[in-house]
Design brief:
By secondary structure, this protein is α/β, with parallel strands linked by helices. The chain is built from nine helices and 16 strands. The longest helix is centred in the N-terminal third of the chain and has 17 residues.
Length: 294
Amino acid sequence: MADHSFQGFRSRFILLQKELSTLPTIAYLGPEHTFSHLVARKRFPEGRLIPCVSIAEVIAFAEVSQNHLGLVPIENSSGGMILETVDRLLEEAQPLFIHEELALHVRLALIGHPGEAPVVVFSHWAPLGHCRRWVEERYPGIELRVAESTAEAARLAAKTPRAAALATREAAAATGLAVLHYPVEEGIVNLTQFVLLGRGKPTPGGRETSLVFSLPQEPGSLCSFLEAFRTEKINLKRIVSRPVPGQPNTYVFFVSLEGSDEEPPMERALRKAEQRALRCRSLGSYPVLAPYDS
């Protein structure tokens, strides 16, 4: 028999609070209806999603609590590395680890006012760069304008006569625009990769390991560091160097390697590499998820 007493309702409320507290809280680069939001919803359909105005804000949110996670883009197949994300990961004091790498096959929609040929197209710089030729061939003389995000591009297009945006189909629905063309294809893969960041170390069994390191200012130091991984037949997936602020001609590096730090070849390589570095910090070994479709 159901308990309809005050104590019964209180017990169910406490149980509901406990269930909610176990749901992940994920910050992502907002606003809503961006591709970052799409990835966050696909990965955490039951999670509490928090839109943030910048990558720095996402990372600050993830740093606050063990129960917080942050989802940020790290690389686009057309636009290259997302340097703001890399720079934050390179900071010596930052406490976060990479928990997962995710990816999205980006399929853009051209959205706009029905029955109007657009004379201006808004979007984030990356979609504009990827789709410039497609847009200009179909709308000669069109003006391309950069927006902070694809969602902001949709908002701008909605209030601008004869304007369109390269954005998500969800952004069209949210702003009252029509989908003029989907998908906008350039004939090449448009893949954006993301990392999920958190304070705790990722669970064992990852497929990829990322490191942050700095090296002595001497000939061959980078070659010597990487040789440890070549010897163990570990593939280097990506490497980025960034200048150290206030120290001309001095650099810090971010690398991603294929393999787990629990595997003997990676363990041996890491021991050798650490001896050749001034500083070397592992951002964890983490799973790489199959790409989502947009």
